[in-house]
Amino acid sequence: MENNNNMGELKAQNQNKKQVRLFYCMECEELAAKVAAQSQLITLQSINWRNFDDGFPNLFINNAHDIRGQHVAFLASFSSPSVIFEQLSVIYNLPRLFVASFTLVLPFFPTGSFERMEEEGDVATAFTMARILSNIPISRGGPTSLVIYDIHALQKVLVAHGAAKVSAYVTHGVFPKRSWERFTPKNDEGSEKGFAFFWITDSCPHTVKAIGNRAPFEVLSLAGSIADALQI
């Protein structure tokens, strides 16, 4: 009887959770697979990311008719200006396909550090991006839910004296111009002269692919956290 009760409780819990159709950009294919592996309630959906001869996007949402009335999400990566337009084109279109709700997961908000105007003439691109995301069309379920991890934080705690080993953690390992190479051991240099561990998340797919299994980097996946956020 106890086993039957447990099964009944699990079924009731699943009935209260959302079945989510998850689309993703090409950069986030690996992370999307990890997210889907976290829950049977998350199903991956695909998009044909093509281009016309002039380089502009030629996009197609596969099986668009199947997502009517469904809870839909999109896993984005705005890693460079060149990929933002094609993803925004999809992001603006998905809520219009009669979906029950739409969630945008943007782990790393790339313009987050450009929110201040120091002098007349400065362009606060963070505000521009915020306006763009604020104007995503509403779905049948209402406004878009936006999931972002740590928009921007300037503080970082450093141990200056007396530590036998020093490690570091950043949410978003951007490392422009392969600056991550400055933290890898050189020649016979060991971890005692650098970071013992440097933890990052997989919010920036390009960096994850670049560092591979190189010490001292270790990647902590956001997959479980994203899967939970899709149930909110």
TrEMBL record:
One of its GO terms (biological process) is nucleotide biosynthetic process. InterPro entries: Pribosyltran_N, PRTase-like, Rib-P_diPkinase. Pfam families: Pribosyltran_N. It comes from the Eukaryota. Residues 21-135 form the Ribose-phosphate pyrophosphokinase N-terminal domain. Keywords: Glycosyltransferase, Nucleotide biosynthesis, Transferase. It catalyses: D-ribose 5-phosphate + ATP = 5-phospho-alpha-D-ribose 1-diphosphate + AMP + H(+). SMART domains: Pribosyltran_N (SM01400). GO terms for molecular function: glycosyltransferase activity; magnesium ion binding; ribose phosphate diphosphokinase activity. Belongs to the ribose-phosphate pyrophosphokinase family. This is Phosphoribosyltransferase family protein isoform 4.
